[in-house]
Amino acid sequence: MQRPRLVKVTLNIGVGAAGEKLENARLLLEKLTSGKAVMTKARDRNPTFKIKKGENIGAKITLRGAKAKETLKRLLETVDKRIRVESFDRQGNVAFGIKEYIEVPGMKYDPKIGMMGFDVCVTLAKPGARIAQRKLRPRRLGKSQRVSPDEAKEFMKQEFGVEVVYPEAKE
């Protein structure tokens, strides 16, 4: 019950505006994972960037189970199985970015899509963590059932052979 496990992998592309670029982002995510991507909407309006509340501004896809594990292995090869220590948050989740999709093994350049990058977010949890999210009688999660950053680093090292990169000290 104390061993973390992979809950989901979320791939996200924030475009910032509706149109052809957003449609290309959706196509790219579907091509990467052979799943169905959903559009993300703006939470507030931002007149500086001409964004209205509720407008489609990005695309994301959530993967779970064996498909998530397989896709994550492919995406980690893109970053040479090296993740910076800043990529781990206090809840034990991991996030990293991929600058260009053509770096992913098995992906070829598509002139229709153009050059585009995306974010990868990995959610980890221990068995029993569902009690905090369930609708009926949710409970607080005990400290021992939360995934610490150190446990997340150890899990990523053991499961996927990831090397955690620490920043160099500046003198």
Describe the protein's architecture and organization.
The chain is α+β, with helices and mostly antiparallel strands and about 170 residues long. It has one domain: Ribosomal protein L5 (50s Ribosomal Protein L5, Chain: A, 2-Layer Sandwich). The chain has helices spanning about 20-35, 65-80, 150-160, and strands at about 5-15, 40, 55-65, 80-85, 95-100, 120-125, 165. The strands form 2 sheets. It has a 5-stranded antiparallel sheet with strand order 2-3-1-6-5, with helices on one face. The protein is globular. About 20% of the residues are buried.
Topology (elements, then pairings):
Layout: E1 5-14, H1 20-33, E2 38-41, E3 56-63, H2 65-78, E4 82-84, E5 94-98, E6 118-125, H3 149-160, E7 163-165
Parallel strand pairs: 4-7
Antiparallel strand pairs: 1-3, 1-6, 2-3, 5-6
- Find the structural class using helix and strand composition: alpha+beta
What is the average per-residue confidence, as pLDDT, rounded to a whole number? 88
The CATH topology is given as 50s Ribosomal Protein L5, Chain: A
Shape: globular
Number of helices: 3
Radius of gyration: 18 Å
**CATH architecture level-2 label:** 2-Layer Sandwich
Give the strand order, joined by hyphens, for the main sheet. Answer: 2-3-1-6-5
User: Could you name the ranges where pLDDT drops below 50 across 5 or more consecutive residues?
Assistant: none
Fraction in helix: 10-25%
Order of helices and strands: EHEEHEEEHE
* Biggest sheet overview: 5 strands, antiparallel
Fraction in beta strands: 15-25%
